[in-house]
Write a structure and sequence with these properties.
The protein contains three helices and five strands. It is α/β, with parallel strands linked by helices.
Length: 137
């Protein structure tokens, strides 16, 4: 969802709610629906929650950081809720707002492919950093 990123002093309660609705509530509902459908139909698979996406020149705001943290917590929480099933959930950080570094589309695609195929050593529920982010090296 497209939401305005505002400096702290301009972030009203309404704007904060709008950001969290787009960055946390909406993904929660999508993940909940996807997992419910996968369980009901017996589909095995991998869900990858992308965290970030503001890019190297993106805003660095308290509200945006809260949304990113919520996405990471959702990925871990959903992974724990389906542990023992054949559904795996990962979080994938695609940019690092602290430093302005961002993974290239190719690196993001490669990280997604590795997580989905099982080629990545990451454990379900882990938060993985795509190549090109500072945390990834």
């Amino acid at each position: 969802g497209e939401v305005p990123y505002l400096p702290l002093e301009e972030t009203t309660a309404e704007k904060f709610d709008q950001l969290l609705a787009a960055k946390a509530r909406a993904p929660f509902l999508v993940l909940q629906g996807a997992i419910t459908l996968m369980q009901r139909t017996g589909v095995d698979g991998t869900i990858i929650v992308t965290i970030g996406g503001t890019g190297a020149d993106g805003p660095r705001t308290v509200a945006a950081a809260a949304g990113r943290g919520a996405l990471a917590a959702l990925a871990q929480g959903f992974a724990a809720s389906v542990a023992g099933s054949r559904i795996r959930v990962f979080g994938l950080v695609i940019d690092d707002e602290r430093t302005g570094s961002a993974a290239t589309p190719h690196d993001v695609a490669r990280a997604v492919a590795d997580l989905a195929s099982g080629a990545s050593p990451a454990a379900p529920g882990s938060i993985t950093f795509a190549p090109g982010t500072v945390a990834a090296g």
